[in-house]
Design goal:
With 347 residues, this protein is of the alpha/beta class. 32% of the residues lie in helices and 19% in strands.
Length: 347
Amino acid sequence: MNEEKKVLIGMTPEELSKEVELLGMPRFTAKQLTKWLYEKRVANIDEMTDISKANREKLAEKFCVGTMNHVLRQESVDGTIKYLFPVITQKPEQSLKRVETVFIPDKERATLCVSSQVGCRMGCHFCQTGRQGFEGNLTAGDILNQILALPERERLTNIVFMGQGEPMDNIDAVLRATEILTAPWGFAWSPKRITVSSVGMPNLRRFLDESLCHVAISMHAPLPEVRRKLMPAENGMGIEKVVEMLREYDFTHQRRLSFEYIVFKGVNDSRRDMDKVLELLKGIECRVNLIRFHKIPDADLEGVDQQHMEMLRDYLTARGITTTIRASRGEDIFAACGMLYSKERGE
């Protein structure tokens, strides 16, 4: 991507208005641009036919739409498709960066799992992305490109921010992307179609205050001493503090709260662990999603069998917390976050 040109996707109408004014164009040009970018979703400025040719040329000198197609695609036997997208805004002197996106079709539902960072600072021991370390934040344009450049974009019903990175560690770009996705002038999606995940950190409060999207908390262990070994983020804002914060918000109406729980054999799969989950979440309107562990290279963790997963699900559900087992998808195509990117880099 030419670094001398500004990327249009990710800009708000107010920002577009300032930019066209600087170029001496009428202010209504910003409305036209907004419509072409987010409603009609064109790939280049030349397609914006209700803007005069002279103004399109003027815009093209300074700007580009910014969408970039995937560089790698892998399709699973179950229909799940994993894409590797380039990072739009990286500078020529930087090492090549890629970001993973997963399209998950399921009958009438089609979910896209998007990334918010290249790599991740959180360092979770069960996550391949965490092993890569942190390589940079994505811009709102980089996040939106995963949707706009997706071949299946017209089929999408839901978006989850559960790919590479910790969304709350890139709060400005994530809030901007979700604003564009839900604003009447943007994609005009309902916030109910979007779920944003987090390990739990102070920026979560800002997200809860400024967005109406669903929230998914990566719990993975209810006991702080166990969670700390799995997730260094427990040393920052522990799960008990996260839950305490969440109690201040209303999840009984439109917005939904869920807790993600990867089950590890002999680590977090005991009756004691489930009783702690019940104690921790008592009185909160939420659900728990139990997740099978996708094995990553050199990990000293193991998953559990289907019977054990069902036992944990039934134990929690019988005691008042709606609990589901998330279906495993794409296991034959490097399904775990970060694995496709690592493979491409030869790690």
